[in-house]
User: Fold this.
Amino acid sequence: MIVTDRFIARTRLQDRAFSVLGATLTVGAMLFLGILLFDLARDGLSRIDWQFLTSFPSRRPGMAGVLSAWVGSLLIMLVTAVTAIPLGIAAGVYLEEYARKNWFATAIEINITNLAGVPSIIFGLMALGLFVFRFNFGQSILAGGLTLGCLILPIVIVSTREALRTIPRGMREAAYALGATRWQVARHHLLPYSLPGIATGVIIAISRAIGETAPLITIGALTFIAFLPPAPVTLDPEFAVQPLKWVWSPFTVLPIQMFNWVSRPGDDFLRNAAATGIILIGLTLTMNAVAVVLRYRMRRRIKW
Amino acid sequence: MVTSAAPRHAAPPVHAGPARMTATPPPIPTLLDSDVVRPAPPASRAIKAQVENFSFFYSTVQALADVSLPFRERAITALIGPSGCGKTTLLRCFNRMHDLYPGNRYVGRILLHPDNLNIVAREVDPISLRMRISMVFQKPNPFPKSIFENVAYGLRLRGIRSRSELEGRIQVALEDAALWGEVKDRLRKPAYDLSGGQQQRLCIARALANEPEVLLLDEPTSALDPIATSRIEDLIVELKERVTIAIVTHNMQQAARISDYTAFMYLGKLIEYGATAEVFQNPKCKETEDYVTGRFG
Assistant:
């Protein structure tokens, strides 16, 4: 068959056009992000110092800090991770490996996928009714952590299932053929092999949760906290008797603190807000970097 | 192809030089020549497993229809036939692999001797069955673990904890699989560093370590080069003295070379079963003859 040079030139041109378009859009997006970060850094970077990290909020912007906010964020994430990760992975393994594939499983599957797309404030409303009032957890770290746990549960489940699906069928069959039970197959093979994928999903979920504001405001997180939760965060002799007392403590988190400062008049509070934003972005980027490193290191050991 | 008597998967082609071109071409060896086919087994051997009026359904699609055939002890039984004839489906019934996927249904019996256990009966626990019957798959599928851990896995599932016992059994299994010499200095290295042929021998070692009564081989050499294939074929022939072997193969030369009995299947039915020499040299059915001579398939 003879293909004319003009025809080939035309297909080449289309190929070139797309690569130029793609490059332009990529550079544009990066530039946009860069400007955003630069703007934030110009406003807030000079404000970040030891005093800012170790002070409670204050009416005077120069004396204010984010101590209670970053401690709150970390504790909330701890509760979220401890509840959502095991539950989500277990649910993912169950749905993928144990559950019979019938209409009920399909219905659950569709619901979980949809749940991942529900606006976060809806989760806040549910948590307000369920955790705060029905279970009487109050506006505590426990209630906040569980709220965000619910929020990221579908993401953890979905990423667990996706990770399990990438395992070749031959791996399962090899293990079953040797006489393994479903639990042994999951425990010895599927979970270890899918760990890089699960870890990536989990960390992305957590870094989404750390920026969430709406559901925590909905359950009534405070915006002004001038004390830290009890031990182990602060030295508290009661720690030995009630090691989990801190989960009942009221809290605030970084995005709420930021939101609070943005809504105040005066440039100084805006500088505080920008500084808080930088800390938040730094936290998120650090977690994403950890995810990338984890995935890379674990993938290197597993290949087929 | 229709008139040629050459089999579809011909033996390595004869490299005819220019001098040869003018002379009469030498006869191409076919499976009907006695020297290609294994001699008939000395006497019929005790039956290890008996398939009886067995049918199998992938939900509503019938894949096997009323199959009956024996698998004899200390012998290799080959299942041959064109793609989609049900040979792999039948093999995977022996360790109930079909249980892993929903909607599959077994009808009839597959009796495992000496205890007359109906393999496909619902009340038979597939786990206890798989403790007695091992399988090697078409594509080498070692676990992404070390060579040692690959062979140890089946033993660990059988409750063997002692380090020294594991090490001893693993060495024996790797020796049986003709792999020990190549891997003895790197047992802790990942199994995926091995070549394809070594990986498949590792999978055979993994299956043998459990001392199975029956070894199922599902086209074990189809992903391998000729040299690796011939090593594995030699290995299979050696192993039959200790374990009943059922092998599915697409390669008729392979069936002819290594098996003692051959079952030819077509469209989910068993067309012909007999001593391999009989099936290849003196087939009773027209379809068998057409297939083994390469006229279709």
